[in-house]
Structures are given as structure tokens and as C-alpha cells.
Amino acid sequence: MADQDLIPFSDKYKRIATEEAWAPEELLKMYADLYNSKTYDDPGFDSLWGFYGSSMEPRPATVRRKLADLDDERIADMDAAGIDFAILSLTSPGVQVFDRDTAVTLARDSNDMLKEAIDRHPDRYAGLCAIAPQAPELAALELERCKNLGFRGIINNSHTFGEYLSDPKFWPIFEAAEAMDMPIYLHPTTPPKNMIEPMLEVGLDGAIFGFGAETGMHMLRIITAGVFDRFPKLQMIIGHMGEALPYWMYRLDFMHNAQVSSHRYETLKPLQKKVSDYLKEHVTITSSGMAWEPAIKFAQQQIGLDRVMYAMDYPYQYVKQEVTDMDNMDMSDEHKKMFYQDVATKVFKL
After folding, report:
1. What's this model's pTM, rounded to 2 decimal places?
2. Hey, is 21 helix, strand or coil?
3. Maximum alpha-carbon separation in the chain
4. In 3D, which of 215, 211, 144 has the Cα closest to residue 173?
5. Do you find a cis peptide bond into 122, omega within 30 degrees of 0?
6. H or E, element range at 237
7. H or E stretch including 139?
8. How many CB atoms neighbour CB 14 within 10 A?
9. Which domains does the chain have, with CATH numbers?
10. pLDDT in tens, 179-205
11. Contact assessment for residue 21 and residue 289, using Cβ atoms and an 8 Å cutoff
12. Strand, coil or helix: what is 100?
């Protein structure tokens, strides 16, 4: 690689990338086996891992290789892009497509493997703890173990068999996260069977649209279920510039109030605050996959400078030019330092 292809590290801030995926080779093989077995009735999983798990096209083949690498190639890519530090998390759908016992074991083993990589490269990596929501009480225990291992938060890849964290049966996870002061990154996965078909038939089920629509809805379910009223110190993270939620805040506030006051839905109850207040006080947004200055600035203006941070979305979206574009934003060095470094340092307690 020629020197001119490298993006130099900045002397004004550290560039911390906060939504960077990985997966052990064993897990990638298990995804392929699950897809090939045709025993798991989930068209979203089939769409996602039928492509990334078996296609020999350059993009999926490259993604598979880079996902499994936690050493030379990944660090070389970070160096080439001028990325100082990465927060690593288990790729979607994580362990959330397997039976309870398998998922619990896989989560623990994956966390141990990630811990070993962090120990090899402590100046380049920190990690988020993978959990098996299929077993909420055991997931809470795994959070405690991960906290003791030095993990900086939790990764949850949206729905689990079409069920959402807004269901109180999953709330031991929130209780443990709040008690241990660990943020939960709510990462996308493909929409469940009862949501995906109109997207799938026109190729809109994945990162192009379906991911954001499903994960944004998941976060709204968490808010409107009263999770943050029940766990007032809980903090969460969503990527891709907030899965569109910052741009809906005015309407979310208006229509939530209108529907609650008219008693339209039995499941929609009064909250202590406005929907937008929970986004501003409990949610941090990353720029993963959305290296777009207008969207970043809008989120900073509406959510707060202290609630928007950088992510690349490696290896699914490894574009070195985006780092140059972010460096060149019409923004003070102080605010760029917040975006690249300070918010992540605070959220993940680096």
C-alpha cells in the first residue's frame, strides 16, 4: 500500500470507531449450516446470511474474511484509515438465532475470544458483551462477568425470534445494564417474518432500509413501554444516525400525546416525559454507515453534541474516504474532537 493511500492519524483528536463488527469463524460456519439446513423459518436470516455466508462475490467474501480477523488485517485497515481505536461487537444476528442453550454457550465463548483479542491489542480495541436474550437471567449474569473482564457495554442485535426487549420478560437485562452502568448498543438485524415480506420482494430488507425501519421501531417500543421510566439511569446506543428517529421527533411527540390522551390503544400508556426527551437523555447516536455531514449536524443540533459519535461500520462499510470527509466537515476542531473522541470516551468509559 502506497503512503499516499494512507490517511494520517490526527494530532487534534483520536478517531474512535464505535460500531465495528467481528465474528469467530465457528459462528460464521454455524450461520452457513443453519441456512443450509432449511430448518430455521426466518426469511430475513436467509436473505442476510444466504448472501454473506455463501456468496463468492467480492463483497461478501471480503466481509467474511475481515469479520473473522482480529489481528493483522483489521489493524492494517485501521491504520490505513487513521482509526486509532475500535469498539468491537459481535456481528448481527449474533447468537440470537439459536436455541437457548446453544446461544448462552456461544455468547460466553465469543466474549472470551474477544477478550483475548483485546488483551493482545489493548491500545487498539475495547469490546461489547454479546448476550443471549433467550435466557434473560443468564444474560444478566454474563453482563456481570463481562463487566469484570473489562467490557465497555452490551451488544443486542434487535429482535430475537420476532420478540422485542420491550417485553418485560427481557427486563432483567435492562436491570443488570443499569446496575452495572453498561450501555446497550441496539444494533439492527433483518426484520422478522411478519414484517419483512414487502421489503424482501423488492430488495429493501437489509441495510438499505429494513435494518433502520426495524431497529427504529424497536427503540420506539422500548421507549413507549416505559423502560426508561422504570430504569432511569439506563443508557442505550443506536447507529446509522439514529435509525431516522431524530428526524421524526416532532411527530413522535405530537402523535404519542394524541393517542395516549384519546385512549386509542390499550398498550400505549402515559410516560413521564416526551418521546423526544428519552432520545435526548438516554440514547447516544453513532454515524455508522452514514458519513453524511447534514445528517450528523442535524442530530447534533437536535439530540446534542454530547450524544453523537463516530462509527465506521467495519467491515460492511469500509470506506477510507469517509474519514477525510468527516475531518473536512464545516465544524470546529472542538466539536470534531467531541464527535470522534470525547463522546465515545464518556459513553464507554475509556
Report:
1. 0.97
2. strand
3. 64
4. 144
5. no
6. strand 236-238
7. helix 136-149
8. 17
9. 11-348 (3.20.20.140)
10. 999 999 999 999 999 999 999 999 999
11. no
12. helix
